[in-house]
Specification:
With 68 residues, the chain is α+β, with helices and mostly antiparallel strands. It contains two helices and five strands; from the N terminus they run βββαββα.
Length: 68
């Protein structure tokens, strides 16, 4: 089984560049912007079953292994 990171952004006005922030005890926090992820990781289409709408949906996602 492969793990993926799905990012969804909902806002009326365009937000600042989205970023992930990684934190762990004893280390300085690190942020990775969406632009950096786009450059480093190839996005893939992921299809999942949506229980609310009772149908399959597709999302564009980065493989979690590449993100981490």
């Amino acid at each position: 089984m492969r793990a993926f990171l799905l990012l969804a952004f909902f806002a009326a006005a365009p937000p600042a560049e989205p970023a992930l922030r990684f934190e762990r005890p004893g280390a300085a926090p690190r942020s990775v912007s969406a632009a950096e992820l786009r450059a480093a990781c190839k996005a893939e289409t992921v299809e999942v079953e949506d229980p609310y709408y009772e149908r399959r949906k597709r999302f564009l996602a980065w493989p979690l292994r590449c993100v981490l």
